[in-house]
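Structure tokens please, single chain.
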Amino acid sequence: MISSFSLKAFGPTTVGIRRVVIAAAGVATLGVAVYRMPVWSDVWTAGTVVGVITVAAAVFVLAIGLAVRGSAQAIGRVATEVSLFVCALIVAETVLLFRAPENWFDNPLVQRIVIRERAAREQGLVYDARLRAEVVGDLQSRGMDAVPGFAGGIIAEPAVANAIRERGLLPLSNVANVLVVECNEGTGYLKYRSDEFGFNNPPGISAGPIDVAVIGESLALGHCVAPSASAVDRVRARFPRTANFGVAGSRVLSQLGVFREYVEPVEPAVVVWMVNLNFAEPRYEADQAVLMRYLNDASFSQGLRQRQREVDSFVREAVVPLSVRRDRALREELSGAPAFPLDRVIKLAEVRSAIDLGAAVRRPAALPDLSDFERAVGRVAEAASAWGGRVIVVILPSYQLSVGQRLDTARYEAVSGVLRDSAVAVVDGPALFALEPDYLRLYTLRGDNHPSESGHAVLGEAVIAAINSREKP
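Here you go.
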């Protein structure tokens, strides 16, 4: 509602300044719309973009017309309302930023650490604020042979990619027979002693014979719950000869490589493949010729079971130092007191995120390219059937999927479609999590993290049921 007031106290100079303010608001509206048009075009429908630009142009024309031809009283009222509106937005943005101090940092990883620490404190948990390399350093100072967890994504780093070319080896596991430090999502760091091939297993299981072999990424490995509480540990409690070949951060081609190198030689009765929807596309893995050979040549192998000493040397010399350097840089960011981001106040990013005006007019999410994933599933199913084995694919849930983010929903539907037409059995993790009224309890710290012990329990019991069943779930 526009307030009534008198302009008697204002002279021609004041009115002239307000005309400039109104004209500037019109120019700014159109300028921002034109500047943001490429971004909007990527996420909004064409009709919506045209509509917004048209509205911005109309605002520009009206503002210029009012600034040039409007009466002093009209100029005063509009200028005041515009000024108050802008001030209100700036105040709202400032309040939102003060309520979310993690957004003062530019590094998304730092933001996640700050969020987790605050969430743990709010839930009364004692949070270990050390970084992974610092935990490793403390263990080494006590005479223990410890290393940070090997993450599949590190092969994309230039230094590691160079080492792969120079050594003619692409490792798919961690150092053998050491204490491996993985992740912390509020309940303390996951630590385990790696087996003779660098995986999270009791000694001797990976060598075979094996009843159940599990491949996948971080959830398969056991992030981020206590040992014995993961989904794979629950399966092992029912089927003792269960081997875990999970590798954090690995994507579809690396997981196919793990299957070829470590699972095929022991021919287990059941292969459980835990699929993260975000990792079903190879992305940077497609740049690695070795990983593409696993997909294109069913007989290709690096012979990693016989090259563990080379794997150990590679990880210790090329991967561990890089991980330590990353954590040192991260500690410097965390230790420095962040300045209030005044530059972000002007952008109103927090207000726009809170309102999310574009949610109803976004384009349908682009479907992922799952051609390599489909071929990889076929490779695994064909190989397992040759020795009489079965393949069970577990579609893993995610916080983003649980809260209904559109892109994750599109990936889920696309992956489900590929698996529906394949020769594998499927455990639908997202559907199982959707049955839980309080789905947040299924994630650590009730937030955007890995599944909690309760979440792992749901998945573990579903896998056990699928193994026991001879039908395709």
